[in-house]
Specification:
This protein is mainly alpha-helical and 112 residues long. The chain has one domain. Helix content is 52%, strand content 0%.
Length: 112
């Protein structure tokens, strides 16, 4: 499609993501705030949720200090499945953000 954004190679004729346009409309400060994990508890919850979905990862660090990906498994996922996975991630992140905001207003913890 000349001049338009489409995902033609997927054969779906779907225009570029409205979600991407929405996210890219945020200013840098807002993006940074939403991309920041606010507590160690949140990191723990994300790790547990990810492990429940995909299993426990075997992370091996090479002598060069990089992650060895030679034993990584590959998953095959449809475009619809990818959209559902993305929406679940956004929903889960939004839920965590709302809960952290509630806890911050209800209980006054000292930042570490």
């Amino acid at each position: 499609m000349a001049g338009g954004n489409s995902v033609g190679d997927l054969g779906h004729g779907i225009k570029a993501s409205r979600l991407r346009s929405y996210v890219m409309s945020f200013d840098g400060e807002t993006l940074q705030r939403y991309a920041t994990i606010r507590s160690r508890e949140t990191v723990s919850i994300i790790e547990k949720h990810t492990e429940a979905l995909f299993g426990r990862p075997e992370i091996v660090i090479t002598s060069q200090g990089t992650v060895d990906s030679s034993k990584d498994e590959h998953i095959k996922i449809s475009f619809g499945g990818l959209k559902r996975l993305l929406l679940e991630a956004v929903t889960f992140g939004s839920f965590l953000w709302d809960i952290e905001s509630y806890v911050d207003t209800r209980y006054h913890f000292v930042a570490n």
